[in-house]
TrEMBL record:
This is SH3 domain-containing protein. One of its GO terms (molecular function) is amidase activity. InterPro entries: Cell_Wall_Dynamics_Protein (IPR052354), MGlyc_endo_b_GlcNAc-like_dom (IPR002901), SH3-like_bac-type (IPR003646). Residues 265-329, 411-473, 629-692, 744-806 form the SH3b domain. PANTHER family: FAMILY PROTEIN, PUTATIVE-RELATED, GLYCOSYL HYDROLASE FAMILY 19 DOMAIN-CONTAINING PROTEIN HI_1415. Residues 845-999 form the Mannosyl-glycoprotein endo-beta-N-acetylglucosamidase-like domain.
Amino acid sequence: MIQKFFTRSIVWMLVTLLMISSFPQNMLAGEEKQPHLIKVITDTEIKSNDGVNIGKVYKDTLLFVSNIPGDKENLSFHFGEKEATIQVESTVQVETSDEILKRYELGLSYSESVGMLLSHQKTIPFMDNTNINRGLIQPGAEIFVQKLDDSYIYILLGGIDYIVDRTEYESYFVQLESNLKDENSSVVDLKEENSHTDETQVVEVTEDSDAIEDDKLENSDTLEESEEDIQEKEIKETLVEDTEVENQSSQLQLMTAPENEIFTKNTKYFRVTDEQVPIYDNRSSSLKLVGFLSKGQVFPRTRDYTSWHQISYGDYYAYVPKNGTVPSEKLIQNVYSTSLLVTNTRMITTLTDTPVYDNSTGKLIQYATLVKGLQHTIIKEYTSWYSVLVSGRVGYIRKSQAVSSFLSTDSFFKVVEEKGKTPVYSDLADNSKIIGYLYNGQEYPRLEQHSGWHGIKFGNVIGYVHSSVTTPANGKSIKNLSDDSATNISITPRWDSVVYDNTKPGPLVPFAVVRDNKSYKILKEYTSWYAIEVAGRLGYIRKKNAIREFTDSDKFFKVEKDSIPVYDNRSGTLVMVGSLVKDQVYERTANYTSWHQIQFGDFKAYVQKEGTTPSSDSGIKNLNTKYQNTKKTFTALKDLEVKDNSTSPLTTFGFIKEGQSYPVISEGDKWWGILFAGRVGYVKRDYALGGIYKEVSYTDYNYSLETMINKQMMVSPQTDKYKVQYAYVAGYLISAVEEKDTYPKLATVKGTSGVNLRSAPNANSTTWVYNNVPFGKTLTIVDYAGNGWYKVEYPRHIFGGFSNAYESDVREYVDPNNFDINTKSMYQFVLLSKFAGANPTELNNLLDGKGILEGMGDAFSKGSKLAGINEIYLVSHALLETGNGKSTLATGVNYNAPDGKTYKVYNMFGINATDGNATANASKFAYEEEWFTPEAAIIGGAKFVANRYVYNGYGQDTIYEMRWNPAKPATHQYATDVGWAEKQTSNFMNMYNKLTSYQLYLDIPKYQ
């Protein structure tokens, strides 16, 4: 009863599919109420809805499409009775003509399909009604046929009829019955008849048949079986010459019915007369090519249809067109008689078009082909072969031509990648992240199963391998399974590195490749090798190919690349103070995640671990065991080499950066002895300043001193030398504020160009102008001076005690010959781009008791190095501008910002403290620069001075040049006070005098 119900269900399913495939064309066409006519403007591919290439249309071909050509997506049209697409950019919309509408209406008139074109080997070209080629149908694609005449086969594309040459391509036409009831009445279930064997011998492949099979297939894996101790015997294979196959085919032809014999419902077998006939899977909505049957071979069938044979094909039924076949007697021995379908759960996927062999005659005879990429249920697995059911017969395919599916119970897999290695990925969602490779022919344990993937243990993570390039395995060939007894120490490969299996005698066997983007736990360490676990197996990687991670117990490290920097981090920002040399070994004082801590002079410095490897002190002859730093220091006048004198010749093993102060352990006539990262080293005294070093240079300018003075006078230089109390103004340029007869009284400046403050109540040329008071400013009148002039108080609230300088004042300060280079005045000529060589501790000594600047030595040192500017100048300048750290700008000003909030800001160099409203202007500038801490103001101020005056193309590298700018006189000058540069020299000198050793570079201008 169950069998009858199952049989009826299959029949009705096929009937339903055939009904769907036979719907009238006008039903499909009728769905397009407003079709759009397009013209193809370039040869373009036709794609099915699932993206498969099923044909091509040529330039100028016309099609009706169902969606608007202006859409961004591809255009849809009818490919026979199926939906297909072409790229929208390959088309243009055109107007519909009467002629083309007639062709469209003709297509609507077709009532139903009469068959289909099935091409599995050749492309089929199609033409329009003028016999011009308009495209082609690809092999493997099928299209329903609307009608036939003596010359042509008619098909519909995009609602328009196109034709195929019948005389050339009729062999690819498969007829469909229009009356499904008639078709159904001829369906005969042959399964029960085929399940009973007659007197002809039937070969069954069961566990007990291995001994018989052993004599028939060649055992190509004898060596492999002996090594793996596999008990299963291989079926002997004997290759058949082409002549033998032809002879057997001739015998079959003589013993079968004539080719013109008609199939009846009682016909149980058919013979293939074409070179090969296709096999189709019809379980989906369309026919899918799954294989071929070979010429001359006989096959049982399970049902009869008017135009088709139904055959058993693995675990389902497939269909073969009757064209190219004739009825036949049985004449075969390898009929599958245990059941009609295979019930095994193991499946294989073919890697290429795969031959299927019959071995029942003692010779291998190919009787079918499985197409590439086919998933097929197997009957049984042998060492080198799979047995399969194809068209009711038991056949054999080589394992090398297919990969087996995996079951959840499979614990191992074998790589069968033809390219030799297959990638291991770290992420299922991102196939670009390759972390290693596995070798072809090698077996591996797996931890997880995902759709299309194996999860394996790969180093410290789960790696993923495509299951499509693997086959199930039993793991018996693996002799180096890991016991997972790893240490807590990891290595990282330097580059793609081979991992070897060392358990077999003879040479090492590679089984994996690890990349430089993952770490691996060490199982054991040897002289030249690390033992690690990769893909669940114990492997060996050469030490030179890997970098071991550092542990707290590692006391030394080796530098593996050129010039690794040494950084000072005491200021909170990394400042480079030296460098280490490739292939040298150094002692470290602490271990951090990404850094080594080393002793660098009298402080701890830091070296990045990248580019270094763990090492030992073996081989270090100059390791320090007795010396200590003294209080004496030197300053590097250039990037200074540190030498090891335990070798001959001397070996450079480090560098101290120019300007860096460094303590010494000993003195010689030509060398300083030092401690450098735990080793005793030596630097040349010629390049390491100990004590005071002064160097004087001169810069010539191609104009005279008089020219310099005249240009400076044009920009109103100021002086506080003359303590001016009163001045005179012209009455017509002011307006009284207070209407009273007595003095003093207030007045405002009404002259748009301001009003000059003169030394006498007249405008004679001999009268000196102290300054100019801007429009709108207030003056205090103390008396009327006659002739329209008034005597006023000098407005110190505006000018702060400064007035226009006389020419003699300018000459006094601008002429370098007025200064003795052996006095404090020489410090205005110190090159600001040269370091003095003071360290943060020495700077803190200079700042002791200096208000908010006290303890800011690190900030000044950091600002100096980051800006490349003299650290003593920065301290001196800041002390001058801040009144020894106690000015309003230094201690902080509350600034009301545009966002409505109040910020405390600092300005340590008086930057933008312009005359008139110094505090407001300077605090606004500090806010814009985000100087919200004293440290930020020091470091930012250093950068401002360096960028604006020293390193921004102006060439102002001394205090003198900052004030007078001899390269471009009267432009870009730091101050208006003629004595500004000289005033800074006292502090500058006092700072230098407090240092026990320093370097001093002077640059003095020379005018013509």
